[in-house]
């Protein structure tokens, strides 16, 4: 681990309505899970890294902040390659975070999220989430806790090169985070 406080990158879809409809999940499932995860991280003195434009990245930061979390980093990509609507949304939400990075493009953000985190929690999949997952390949044994009940599956070709740990539900994810936090204290 990078430091004695476990810093968790939380990834998941922004277009949650679409993802919940195709998986299928009950509407609100991913929002509830993201807010719960943010609150859990705060209550257990863990750090948070997210891209809080909308969806999972925003809800996890809101849950973290409302539960007293004080070690959060918001990545707010900017630059000529940034989609204007995403940039505007992200800027509105970053004030909730304790730290802010705005010197990244959308292409650079996944790799920076890996560098800033000790592990990932994946709450649902999307194209962007898969990019973030794949970015962990170059960090060695970088744990990625994936809530299995929120996805339809992951390609074996991808998981064979990553340290993916499938979790049945949020409870199991929280237990694994506590184990990782103990390891980081050693």
| Arrangement of strands in the largest sheet | 4-3-2-1-5-6-7
Structural class: alpha/beta
CATH domain class: Alpha Beta
CATH-scheme architecture: 3-Layer(aba) Sandwich
Order of helices and strands: EHHEHEHEHEHEHEH
Question: Would you write up a description of this structure?
Answer:
This protein has 186 residues and is of the alpha/beta class. 43% of the residues lie in helices and 16% in strands. It has a seven-stranded parallel beta sheet with strand order 4-3-2-1-5-6-7, sandwiched between helices. Strand 3, helix 4 and strand 4 form a beta-alpha-beta unit. The chain is globular and about 35 Å long. It starts with 6 loop residues before the first strand and ends with a helix. The model has no long low-confidence stretch (mean pLDDT 90).
Q: Can you lay out the helices and strands and say which pair or pack?
A:
Layout: E1 7-11, H1 16-22, H2 29-43, E2 47-50, H3 56-66, E3 72-75, H4 84-93, E4 99-101, H5 109-116, E5 119-122, H6 127-135, E6 143-147, H7 156-159, E7 163-167, H8 170-185
Parallel strand pairs: 1-2, 1-5, 2-3, 3-4, 5-6, 6-7
Helix pairs in contact: 2-3, 5-6
Please tag this protein with its features:
186 residues; alpha/beta; Rossmann fold; 7-stranded parallel beta sheet; 8 helices
Could you write a compact summary of the structure shown?
With 186 residues, the protein is an alpha/beta fold. The chain has a single domain, classed as Rossmann fold (3-Layer(aba) Sandwich).
